[in-house]
């Protein structure tokens, strides 16, 4: 059971705070159910209701990593291979699954591959495909939300923090 005030990751919403639990009836349902009320850290105006008794919804809730775990993840980043997946359909499917899984290491590898490819195509005077750009933004949003909350920094500081830490390790 989650506690009020606890910070978690929830699906594509990123880092959220559990603000309360409520019993509600939504839609045509005749039965009240218990819900966690989550508020995304980056957008306090949004409210998410997550059924306490729904396994699929519960699977989307993940605990935040500790500062030590995040630091270790950043330290290992230069070692991670980030091969480009040339087949567009396979790449998009793989990256969409990575976003759904929420695996931070895979998200970092994905973001690194997309970032490096964007840099490469920009040097040729082209732009990253729109779908790839959107996937990169989604990965960055999820990673930045978590890093900012756990490390007590602004979201805008996270990318420079990652590159500074990476440079220290190289």
Q: What report would you give on this structure?
A:
By secondary structure, this protein is α+β, with helices and mostly antiparallel strands. Helices cover 51% and strands 18% of the residues. The chain has helices at 55-59, 67-76, 88-101, 104-123, 130-151, 155-169, and strands spanning 7-10, 14-24, 33-40, 48-51, 61-63. Strands 4-3-2-1-5 form a five-stranded antiparallel sheet. Strand 2 (14-24) and strand 3 (33-40) form a beta hairpin. It is globular and about 60 Å long. The mean pLDDT is 88.
SSE layout:
Layout: E1 7-10, E2 14-24, E3 33-40, E4 48-51, H1 55-59, E5 61-63, H2 67-76, H3 88-101, H4 104-123, H5 130-151, H6 155-169
Antiparallel strand pairs: 1-2, 1-5, 2-3, 3-4
Helix pairs in contact: 3-5, 4-5, 5-6
Q: Quick gist of this model?
A:
Helix content is about 50%, strand content about 20%. It is α+β, with helices and mostly antiparallel strands and about 170 residues long. The protein has a five-stranded antiparallel beta sheet.
Q: Overall mean pLDDT score?
A: 88
| Oligomerization state | single chain
| Most strands sheet | 5 strands, antiparallel
Computed CA radius of gyration, to the nearest angstrom: 18 Å
Distance between the termini: 41 Å
The number of strands is: 5
The residue fraction in helices comes out at: 40-55%
Approximate strand percentage: 15-25%
Taken from the alpha-carbon principal axes, the silhouette is globular
Strand order of the largest sheet: 4-3-2-1-5
Question: What is the SS-derived class?
Answer: alpha+beta
**Which regions contain 5 or more consecutive residues with pLDDT less than 50?**
none
Order of helices and strands: EEEEHEHHHHH
């Amino acid at each position: 059971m989650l506690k009020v005030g606890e910070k978690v990751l929830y699906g594509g919403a990123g880092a959220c705070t559990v603000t309360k639990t409520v019993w509600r009836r939504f839609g045509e349902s005749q039965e009240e159910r218990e819900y966690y009320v989550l508020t995304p850290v980056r957008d306090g105006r949004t409210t998410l209701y997550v059924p306490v008794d729904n396994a699929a919804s519960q699977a989307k809730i993940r605990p935040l990593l500790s500062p030590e775990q995040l630091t270790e993840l950043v330290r290992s980043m230069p070692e991670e291979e980030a091969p480009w997946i040339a087949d567009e359909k396979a790449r998009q499917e793989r990256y969409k699954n990575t976003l759904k899984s929420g695996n931070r290491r895979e998200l970092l590898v994905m973001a690194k591959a997309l970032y490096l490819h964007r840099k490469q195509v920009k040097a040729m005077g082209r732009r990253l495909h729109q779908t790839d750009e959107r996937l990169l933004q989604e990965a960055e949003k999820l990673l930045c939300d978590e890093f900012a909350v756990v490390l007590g920094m602004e979201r805008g500081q996270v990318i420079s923090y990652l590159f500074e830490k990476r440079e220290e390790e190289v």
